[in-house]
């Protein structure tokens, strides 16, 4: 078993096995078994996303990951068929890994029931395999899609052509499974959005000199136990469905509702906002005042945390919005500072009240002098802008001790406890 690009059925027979004499010999064996049985089942894993691994990490890593997928495919196939019935396909493209199972054409139950069961079992194993071996290389790849097909021998046509057509059919089936899964995921997301099945958890933000809780950041969570539980998947689906603005509005409403009667006196509520929030009708002065009054909050209790997940297209307009709401008592924080040029540009343009240093710069800061230099520089810049710094993602005591030594005023992260409902 190896990778094989789907051949055009109209191509000459040499197109599939012409790469090497070994490939020709292997296909000659496949053709002989195919003719003898009169049929073959084909199960294919679409591994085209591995092209990115090959491009970014090289052929060695690609080969290791492809081997893991091949091993799983052969392992599952071996549960349904003995090794002598399992064949390999020649080729060396990055498109798919395929398994041939040779059974006599008269074995109708195998092709009707067992072959789809093998494909379903392989498909069920792919998400777990992705989490185990692919996460360091393809963190956004949730699964590889699987298709199956039947190739039936016709003496008037060449075996290569028939198997090639089956491979193309299996690939189309895998693509259909991918599109159906994407459609189902989009429908699930829209239902979550319409029924407002999101909730907020609140993570402490601690004033380091006093080690007292200064406030809480509201973090969105989707339905527990589903693929939409995490904020990353929620907003990814929002982007795919062009509903980012609607999800962002719902997150703020949910965060405010969760704080009703629960936010401790004098503590601040950090609300995540995309720059497009300025167009939210509930953000208008009168509406926002009514909303805050209903939950017992004053503008001075709220810090709008601006995310760079959505670019600010017009800084002049956004500064007018910021200045207007500052006169009402609201303050602003810039999230994920230090992760790229855009966040530093926003820092200079917006002059926020708080600068949140991304967790990627805080992780293991006690062991990394370069991170310490960068945090000192951001702290110095914040001082000149009149802003205060919040270190995100503090998880261990050594990180805590280091950010304190660097003079950073605030921090949040698992070191201070995991997020949860306000009590």
Characterise the protein shown here.
This protein is an alpha/beta fold and 423 residues long. The protein folds into 2 domains: 14-183, Reverse transcriptase/Diguanylate cyclase domain (Alpha-Beta Plaits, 2-Layer Sandwich), CATH 3.30.70; 196-416, Alpha-Beta Barrel (TIM Barrel), CATH 3.20.20. 48% of the residues lie in helices and 17% in strands. The protein is built from 14 helices and 12 strands. The strands form 2 sheets. An 8-stranded mixed β-barrel has the order 5-6-7-8-9-10-11-12, surrounded by 4 helices. A 4-stranded antiparallel sheet has the order 2-3-1-4, sandwiched between helices. Strand 5 (199-207) and strand 6 (212-221) form a beta hairpin. Helix 7 (231-240) packs antiparallel against helix 8 (244-259). The chain is elongated, with a radius of gyration of 28 Å. The model is unreliable at 1-19 (pLDDT under 50).
Q: Any chance you could write out the topology, listing elements then pairs?
A:
Layout: H1 14-17, H2 21-37, E1 39-46, H3 50-57, H4 59-78, E2 86-87, E3 96-101, H5 108-134, E4 146-152, H6 159-194, E5 199-207, E6 212-221, H7 231-240, H8 244-259, E7 268-273, H9 285-294, E8 302-306, H10 315-328, E9 331-337, H11 341-350, E10 354-357, H12 359-362, H13 369-385, E11 388-391, H14 397-405, E12 410-411
How would you summarize what this structure contains?
This protein is of the alpha/beta class. The chain has 14 helices and twelve strands. Strand 9, helix 11 and strand 10 form a beta-alpha-beta unit.
Q: How is the largest sheet built, in terms of strand order?
A: 5-6-7-8-9-10-11-12
- Shape category: elongated
CATH topology value of the largest domain: TIM Barrel
Number of strands: 12
Mean pLDDT: 86
CATH 2nd-level architecture of the largest domain: Alpha-Beta Barrel
